[in-house]
From TrEMBL:
It comes from Cynoglossus semilaevis. This is m7GpppX diphosphatase. SUPFAM superfamilies: HIT-like, mRNA decapping enzyme DcpS N-terminal domain. GO terms for cellular component: nucleus; P-body. It comes from the Eukaryota. Substrate binds at residues 168, 178, 198, 200, 261-272.
Length: 330
């Protein structure tokens, strides 16, 4: 049987994430957050739901908006994938309740021990209007952004700082948060980056592997800022990212999807590494640009992303969409 569990360098207790402690999360926001993996009183037991932002039965995820101690909060609850190495234990310690039986077919409700019923919980608190909107199910619209649109609509929008705060990114780069999660770092100020698990990944199985590489350089907002000058940085991320993932998770580059988002949610350059075959949110053609393609495009035209027209979806309540509408571009 293939070993699909994640290789760990630390004990499993230590890597257990507990996102759902309000006090800890606030400390994380400010100081970077120690105490990861520690269990404490469940502060979410007092969570009061105001509304359901989205439900996805297939992905077994629900996103709720509510209050934690009078502050707006977004809570994302997700059932976690199975890990092959725990299956024997799951069967041993469980009870089975028969639902129906017909010929050779039967269905049951299996009650596994609580340990195997973990729910990945992500808390954003205090959540802003932007967070609440981000997680709300909304209709999307395709936008065509010419070079001029970028300069007159998108860039002023980004510079207006109406986009999401980059505090969490700076915390990672300055080693104030998620330090123990760093998988690899190249400290070079021009070509270096930090590779670590995206917070969507619980790191328990490689089937849904999701890492992000955050560049040390502070002045690259997105794909639009990239020119041939950045090729050494991009090639470095691709090569060292792939090498590290092979060494650490035994996943060869032929199993990896490496890409950038346009538009990203956070305007500090970062690259996504996800496992091929895992339908990662945001890996579709309308938003993901393969890093290998980006490198080739810049090799053939150093100003490729400065000049070309870009296409991407924006959601109904996205402020950038309003800007495109106001400019008569939609
Ligand atoms: O390209 P885009 O900006 O959409 O992607 C940002 C990525 O950063 C997403 O895949 C998020 O799941 C991930 N992410 C967002 N936050 C706030 C965090 C965080 O605090 N820690 C980590 N490790 N990943 C995050």
């Amino acid at each position: 049987m293939a070993d699909t569990t994640v290789k760990r360098e630390r004990g499993s207790e230590e890597t257990n994430e507990l996102h759902c402690e309000v006090k800890k999360t606030k400390v994380d926001d400010n100081n970077g957050g120690d105490g990861v993996g520690a269990k404490s009183q469940n502060a979410l037991s007092g969570f009061k739901t105001s509304n359901v932002l989205s439900v996805n039965a297939r992905e077994k995820r629900i996103v709720l908006h509510g209050k934690v101690a009078d502050e707006d909060a977004v809570v994302i609850l997700e059932k976690t994938p199975f890990t092959e190495d725990t299956m024997d234990q799951v069967f041993k310690g469980s009870t089975l309740k028969l639902d129906m039986k017909n010929y050779i077919y039967s269905t049951y409700q299996l009650q596994a021990s609580p340990h195997y019923n973990e729910i990945k919980t992500t808390l954003v608190c205090p959540a802003t209007e932007k967070h609440i909107s981000k997680y709300k199910h909304q209709e999307s619209f395709f936008v065509e952004e010419t070079k001029k649109d970028y300069e007159t609509i998108t860039l002023p929008f980004i510079e207006d700082q109406t986009t999401f705060s980059l505090e969490w990114v700076y915390n990672i780069l300055q080693k104030k948060a998620e330090v123990e999660r760093i998988v690899y770092e190249d400290p070079d100020p021009d070509t270096g980056f930090i590779l670590l698990p995206d917070f969507k990944w619980n790191q328990k199985q490689v089937d849904d592997l999701y890492l992000i590489a955050i560049v040390h350089r502070m002045n690259i907002r997105s794909l639009r800022d990239l020119t041939a000058e950045h090729l050494p940085l991009l090639v470095n991320i691709l090569q060292k990212g792939q090498m590290t993932i092979l060494e650490r998770y035994s996943l060869p580059s032929s199993k990896l999807r490496v890409y950038l988002h346009y538009q990203p949610s956070y305007y500090h350059l970062h690259v996504h590494f996800t496992k091929l075959g895992y339908d990662a949110p945001g890996c579709g053609v309308e938003r993901a640009h393969l890093l290998s393609d980006v490198i080739q495009n810049l090799q053939s035209d150093p100003q490729y992303y400065k000049n070309r027209t870009m296409y991407f979806p924006l959601r109904e309540e996205d402020k950038l969409l309003s800007k495109f509408k106001e400019a008569g571009r939609l």
